[in-house]
Amino acid sequence: MAGTDIMHRVFGDLRLALGLLTRLPLPGEVDLTRGAAASWAWPVAGLAVALAGGIGIWLTSALPVGLSAAAGLAVMILVTGAMHEDGLADTADGLWGGWDRARRLEIMKDSRIGTYGVIALILSLLARWSLLVALIGAGAFWPALVAAALLSRVPMVFVMAMLDPARPGGLSRAVGQPPLGAAWGALALALIPALLLCGGAAVWAVIGIALLTLGIAAIAQAKIGGQTGDILGASQQLAEIAALAVLTAAVT
Predict the structure, then answer these.
(1) Contact at 8 Å (CB) between 60 and 136?
(2) What is the DSSP letter of 16?
(3) Digit-coded pLDDT (tens) for 88-120
(4) Over the range 66-76, which residues count as b (16 or more CB within 10 Å of their CB) and which as e?
(5) Any residues with CB less than 8 A from the CB of 9 and at least 6 apart, and which?
(6) Helix 154-162 with 141-152: angle, nearest 10 deg
């Protein structure tokens, strides 16, 4: 019975990760009761996103490499509903567009996008597109794409575990604060396949991601007193760029 309960919980957490971080159609209702305790499974959502993006690249491989990279990027954005891109834009607008904590949080909650957000999105998309072009050209996009997608979902769990929610409502507080064990579990779940796919380059990718995560966590704590769903989205975007950059350098 205990083994059955554990398997039921594991599959429930995997389902929750996919339901929360992707727009993939899932049959039935997603169990939200586990909340942040299920965040160890978030890298699995990254795997689903990477597989979809990789298929998009493969299906358009007869096109010029730039269009193929754009197709893969577009598919990944569609699968996530652009939720991480939205978080990056709101974070850029809020952290650098407001003069005090209250105003920054107000800006981040506003659905309109400002100059900082537009610039952040342009730079993020350009960076990921350029790196995908290089990876496709080197014939090595599959392992790097999968590893980066897995690893880039880990910082969200650590930021949630390290920082309190900055506002009384919102997605971050609704999900809850995960234990550090869930964060280390997410890291193990992402790192093991990343090492198998990319070897020692995955370690350097993790180091780069860790430094970026500490940086964004420190800035968020200083400017808004904690984390929000937008901060989590921004941490994923920056981590993905860092991972792709390191892994691209290793194969080109």
Answers:
(1) no
(2) H
(3) 999 999 999 888 999 999 999 988 999 999 999
(4) eebbbbbbebb
(5) 34
(6) 10
